[in-house]
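Need the bound structure for coenzyme A, inputs here:
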Amino acid sequence: MKTLRPEQTAAEARAVRMLRALANPVRFHLVELLAERKDCTASQLAQALALAPSSLSEHVAILREAGVVQASGDVANQPNNYYCVDPGALDFLAGYLSGLGQRARAWPPLDHTVRMEGTVQIRDATLGDAAAIARIYNQGIEDRVATLETELRSPEERAEWLATHGPRHPVLVAVDDAGTVLGWGSLNVFNPRRAYDHVVDFSLYVAREHRGRGIGDALLGALEDRARLLGYHKMVLAAFPTNAPGKRLYERHGFSLVGIYHEQGMLDGRWVDVMVMEKILG
Ligand SMILES: CC(C)(COP(=O)(O)OP(=O)(O)OC[C@H]1O[C@@H](n2cnc3c(N)ncnc32)[C@H](O)[C@@H]1OP(=O)(O)O)[C@@H](O)C(=O)NCCC(=O)NCCS
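Answer from helper R.:
Posting the output first, comments after.
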């Protein structure tokens, strides 16, 4: 098959595969039916959709290949096989499309331009930023100053992560005049329960060689502005109490200490404390 562009990312390819599979009224209806009924046998589906078994199995095969539908049993085309929709796949597609919408939307008040030694601009991240975001995140992971995460990330994994960040959880990047990404920040789900919808967690990472130039400050300001615009009531973070630049930055932005979890994580065989901070957004 001819690929559209050689640089198509894994996330783009996955979204295109799913959209192709769904761009057929029978298959679309089949997915709606499965989402409604949770699971169905092949016979039940054939009956509900008034399809011949051979036609049904063709449609199901396309949806399975695209990762939209899952089946019980290894033997294909058995009338008693159960089929269900993979909710994670639909969440991925929804997140991917809403990410596109988010990028297409203008955010004029948030087009931060920070004057330092050069000009630094803050904008919404695109899939093209995935490699730079991975590199900067990996520096934070390797430095052991910022996170309990120890698994290094690949550009492909970050592209998937970006694609699933919906409009309420944007990822911002700070870029210089040449377009080089110097740092990134993201608003993250704090807790999926609806009662916590007004609270948002965040991450902030600046490339090693650009720390201490005010980029973290600018990114945090932009994250706060965006959080307000999105209607959040509170921002929270978890960090190491030993992270002096981070602590200084958060305190300067009005975050206050909620408390410290003592010996909360085990990093390289040593207990690590984790501090929790919060800021009510006015
Ligand atoms: C924490 C981090 C995001 C801050 O970004 P930054 O661009 O380096 O920060 P800024 O230059 O905007 O400001 C940092 C503040 O910390 C201060 N600071 C820097 N090094 C410091 C140190 N060793 N001790 C105390 N304060 C320090 C700076 O003086 C500045 O405060 P000021 O403006 O009041 O003088 C960045 O250092 C980083 O990415 N670190 C690794 C990842 C990380 O720790 N992320 C946060 C996870 S919670």
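Comments: Residues 140, 145-146, 204-206, 211-217, 237, 239, 243-246, 248-249, 252 surround coenzyme A (CB under 6 Å). The first strand starts at residue 40 and ends at 41.
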